[in-house]
Amino acid sequence: MIVALPAAGAAPSRELRVFAASSLAGAFGDIAQRYEKAHSGFVVRLNLAGSQQLAAQIEQGAPADLFASADLRWMSYLAERSLVDSTSPTFARNRLVVIVPRTNPARISRLQDLARSGVKLVMGAATVPVGRYGREMLSCVSRQPGFAADFATKALRNIVSEEENVKSVVSKVQLGEADAGVVYRSDVTGAVARYVRTFEIPDSANVLAEYPIAVLRAAAERDAARDFIELVLSAEGQAILEQRGLMRAAGRAP
Hints:
Layout (H helix, E strand, L loop, with lengths): L13 E8 L3 H14 L3 E8 L1 H9 L6 E3 L3 H9 L9 E5 L1 E6 L19 E4 L4 H13 L9 H7 L1 E5 L2 H9 L5 E5 L5 H4 L2 E5 L8 E7 L6 H12 L1 H9 L3 E2 L6
Helix pairs in contact: 1-9, 2-3, 4-5, 8-9
């Protein structure tokens, strides 16, 4: 194996290890580039996966400096074990949408069709934030006018695959391996939109995902991690999140 060595006289790079929910891939990729430009000598290493997977890795001792979760549950899980700092501000929110393949083989034309017999639905597992949010959304939709009271029950029976992160849900639908999937609005990027159709969920039944962020108690680069969080919370960071389809955290002005 060939290992690249720094040029003679060059200062070695310092790593900032960011564990972030997979739905933050685009936004945190952009923010990481801004951070590196403003902090010479630092390289941001992004570890992107389902929030529950990242929490498990941190609990098992994986080296990390900060954690950005797609829900409060897994941040609280680590806080209860004294693995993250007590300060964990919410920095973004996200909406749920339903996507179907562009060819729409199941002929889905409205949300009610998710409960139709034979429809192949893919969702995040119940332990995954997007899976938990999705199940809560289906329950809320069941109480909306025009939906049967057993809508959620029937839709959940149609699940053919439970994924460990939202990107896998997107991939299954995009490749036509499922008739429909519940994902975040931010995951329907320009590239993805070429292959799927999107169905909006009524605001009265939708569930807003909340994203908290915190420094790890065992962080090797605590000051750098705080600087990264400051960038995420800044007007510049919030604008990047919006450009990537997420919503500003409540109370954060443009």
